[in-house]
Amino acid sequence: MKEIISTDGAPAAVGPYSQAVKAGNLLFVSGQIGIDPATEKIVEGDIRDQVSMTLKNVSAILEAAGMDLSAVVKTTVLLQSIEDFSAMNEVYETFFTGNKPARAAFEVAKLPLGALVEIEAVAYLG
User: Fold this and answer.
1) Residue 97 maps to which CATH number?
2) What are the backbone angles phi and psi of residue 47, rounded to the nearest 5°?
3) Higher pLDDT, 50 or 15
4) Distance (Å, whole) CA 69 – CA 98
5) What is the pLDDT of residue 13?
6) CB within 8 A of 45, min separation 6: which ones?
7) Which of 1, 19, 64, 106 has the most CB atoms lying inside 10 A of its own CB?
8) Structural domain total, the chain
9) For residues 30 and 50, is the Cβ–Cβ distance under 8 A?
10) Structural domain harbouring 36
11) Pairwise CA distance, residues 36 & 49, whole Å
12) What is the pLDDT confidence band of residue 110, given thresholds at 50, 70 and 90?
């Protein structure tokens, strides 16, 4: 059974996709960027500020599905610049404090709306 997950606690999708889709015990969270859902604009600041807002958005979507960050089993991090890898890790590790999920991180040419980072996640509700 497939269920679409949506919340006002995270920014609305910027294209024709869902914030997340729950399929059985798995939740697939679409790539999130550092948009403040209150303003619908990317937060001002550096990569750290955007990573923090991005993971808050992921958390809000997980919460709407009855989960939290501890349920995340895999993330994919897209960075505008791989030079931001260390700074991204500084913030990322404050959100994933227990058993850390598997992860891939890539540098990409561009991200939506000029974002510095985008993060997608897969979570498991066991």
Assistant:
1) 3.30.1330.40
2) -60, -35
3) 50
4) 9
5) 86
6) none
7) 19
8) 1
9) no
10) 2-124
11) 11
12) very high
Amino acid, single-letter form, for residue 3: E
Residue 54 — pLDDT band, cuts 50, 70, 90? very high
pLDDT at 52: 98
**Within 10 A of 18 (CB to CB), how many other CB atoms are there?**
16
**Beta strand residue intervals within 1-126, DSSP E:** 2-5, 20-23, 26-33, 35-36, 41-42, 72-79, 102-107, 117-124
DSSP state of 66: T
| Contact of 19 with 61, CB cutoff 8 Å | yes
Angle at 71 between CA 66 and CA 73, to 5 degrees: 140
Cα angle value 58/111/36 (rounded, 5°): 40
Retrieve residue 44's tokens: 């001002």
Residue of 87, 82, 90 whose CA lies nearest to 108: 82
